[in-house]
Amino acid sequence: MSFQLKGKVIFFATSNVNKFNEARKVLSRCKIAVGMIRVKTLEIQSESLEEIANISAIHAFKQCGLPLIVEDAGLFVEALKGFPGPYSSYVYKTIGNEGLLKLMEKSINRKARFRSVVAFFSGELNAPICFKGEVVGEITREPRRESHHGFGFDPIFKPVKSQKTFAEMSINEKNKYSHRARAFRRFAKWYKSLKV
Ligand code: ITT
Questions:
Q1: Which residues make Cβ contacts (< 8 Å) with residue 140, sequence separation at least 6?
Q2: What is the pLDDT along the chain (196 residues), one digit of tens a residue?
Q3: How close is the Cα of 44 to the center of ligand 1, in Å?
C-alpha cells in the first residue's frame, strides 16, 4: 500500500488539550508531526470504544478532509462491572472523582483499567484503522495530585507498577504507563512502517 501522506502533518481531532499534549510527546519522539483540530466529533452511544472512535474519525474527516486521528478512552472499574467505561466523559462531568470514590466507598476490590482506542482515517483508506492501549491499576482511596498535573480521573488512578497516581506524574512519566501512550506508540509504529 502506498501512502501520499507519509511525512506530512497529521491531525488529532479532540476537544481535550491534555490528551493532545500527551499524544504529541509520544509522536514527536517518533518524529511524527501532529496538530490539534477542534472539529466537533460525533460521539455515539455505544459500549464499544472502538465503534465510538471509528464513527467519530469518519465524521471528523468529512468535516475537514485532513488525515486525522481521534481517540476514545475510558476508565473501567472492576468492582462496578466496568462502569463508567464508554460513559467516562459523562460520569466525570456529572459526579466527578468524588462521586466515583463515593460509589466505591465500601469496595475492597480497587482494581481498574484505562483503555484507549486511537482511530486513524484518511482519504486513502476504506475504513479507519484502530490501535489499542491499556493500563491496569487501582482506584485510590483519596484524590492525589501534584500542582496542575493530569486531568479527569488521573488523581484517583494509580498504575500497578507505580506508587504515584497519574496526577502526581509529569506527562513523560505518565506516558511510560498510560493507555494513551501505548495506543499512540502502536499507531506510530504502523505509520512509520508505511511505504512512501
Ligand atoms: P475528546 O474531545 O477527545 O472526545 P474527551 O475528554 O471527551 O475528549 P474521551 O471521550 O476520550 O475524551 O474520554 C472520556 C473521559 O475519560 C474524559 O473526559 C476523562 O474524564 C476520562 N479520561 C480519559 N483518558 C483519561 C486519562 O488519561 N486520565 C484521566 N482521565 C481520563
A1: 110, 155, 156, 157, 158, 165
A2: 445 555 578 999 999 999 999 999 999 999 999 999 988 777 788 899 999 999 999 999 999 999 999 999 999 999 999 999 999 999 999 999 999 999 999 999 999 999 999 999 998 899 999 999 999 999 999 999 998 899 999 999 999 999 999 999 999 999 999 999 999 999 999 999 986 5
A3: 15
**Cα(129)–Cα(58) distance, rounded to whole angstroms?**
11
The rounded distance, in Å, linking the Cα atoms of 16 and 136 is 22
Q: Specify the pairing of strand 68-77 against strand 84-85.
A: antiparallel
Question: Within 13 Å, how many C-alpha atoms sit on residue 71's CB side?
Answer: 32
- State the cell numbers at 116: 484507549
Q: Closest residue (by CA) to atom 20 of ligand 1?
A: 152
Residue 116 C-alpha to ligand 1 middle, in angstroms? 9
- Selecting from 3.90.25.10, 2.40.440.10, 3.90.950.10, 3.40.140.10, what CATH number does the domain 10-192 have? 3.90.950.10
Active site residue 154: no
With a CB cutoff of 8 Å and minimum separation 6, the contacts of 29 are none
